[in-house]
Amino acid sequence: MSIERIESVTYGVEDVDECARFFSDFGLTLQEQSPERAVLTTQVGQTVVLRPIDDPDLPPSVEPGSPGIREVVWGVDSQASLEALVADLSTDREVAIDADGVAHTLDETGYGVALAVTKPEDMNFDVRRYNSRGRVERWNESHTAIPQIRPIRICHVALNIPKEGRWEAVHFYLDRLNFRATDIVKPMGVFMQIEGDDDQHNFLLCHRPDRAGTNHTSYEVSGFDDVIEGGNHMIEKGWREARRLGRHTVGSNVFRFIHCPAGGRVEYAADMDRVDDTYGPNVHETTPPHHIWVLETNRDARVPNTSEGSALA
Ligand SMILES: [Fe+2]
C-alpha cells in the first residue's frame, strides 16, 4: 500500500492566464488553458492545475482571499491500495470519489488531499552529464545552454500550518498515509518522505505562529546549470527571485526560489539527498542553518555575453 509520488497540485488563483504564463516560463508544458482552468505538466507527467480562486468545486481555502494550494493529489501504486486508504480515511472524514476514480478529502488543517492511481512515469527525461577526474560522464561533447529548462518532476510540496495542532496535522500524514518523518525540526516543522520515493523529503509541514498557507512547491531539474539558467530565464521574463541561489542544509539540494503568483514560491532543485529507511528520523531541538552556502558577489554589473565580455570577466 504505497504512495508513489505527487500526482498533481491544484492552485486557486486570481488570474489563471497569468499563472499559466508563469508556470510555462518556469518550464512546465501547457496542456490546456481557458479562463476557468489551465493544466501544465512536468516531464514525468505530473500536473499543475490552475483554477479561479472562487471556483466552488475547489476545497475551501485555508487562507481565504489569498491564492494558493487547494489540493495535493498523491499517486498510489494500485486501485487496491487506493481503496484500502479510502476505507481507513472514511472512518473519520468524508471522502468523495469523482468520475475519474480520484478520492478527495481534507487533512487536519483543511488542505485538500486526494488519492489517484498513479500514471506510469515517462523515464525519458533530460539528464545533464558532468565531468570530474575519475568520473567522466560526457565524452567528446561540449556542455550547451538549454534555451528552456524543463522541470523533470514535482519533488516536494511545503505547506504552512498553524503552530497550534501541528502534531495532529503531521500525524495525519504519518499515521493515515504512511509517510515517514525524516527530519523533525522542533522549532520549524517536519520533513516527510512517502513510501515510494527516496528523496530526503517529498512533503514538509512548516508551522507558523498563527496561520496556514502555501509555502512552496519544488521541481527537480537535471543539474546545477538548470537551477541557475532556469532562475535567470524567470528573471528575464520579469518574475521575481525570492532567495539567492544556494544549497540547503536539510536535504542538501541546490535551490533557487521564485515568487509565484499562484501562491508562495516555486523552487528549482537539484542534487537532493536520497535516503532509505535507515535514515532518521533525526530530531533537531534547534533549527539547523538554512543553507550550506548561498551565492555571494560583490559585482553587480552584468557581464556581457560576448567573447570580448568573457575575456574581461
Ligand atoms: Fe524545498
Automatic annotation (TrEMBL):
GO terms for molecular function: dioxygenase activity; lyase activity. PROSITE patterns: VOC. Keywords: Dioxygenase, Lyase, Oxidoreductase. Residues 153-271 form the VOC domain. InterPro entries: Glyas_Bleomycin-R_OHBP_Dase, Glyas_Fos-R_dOase_dom, VOC_core. This is Catechol 2,3-dioxygenase-like lactoylglutathione lyase family enzyme.
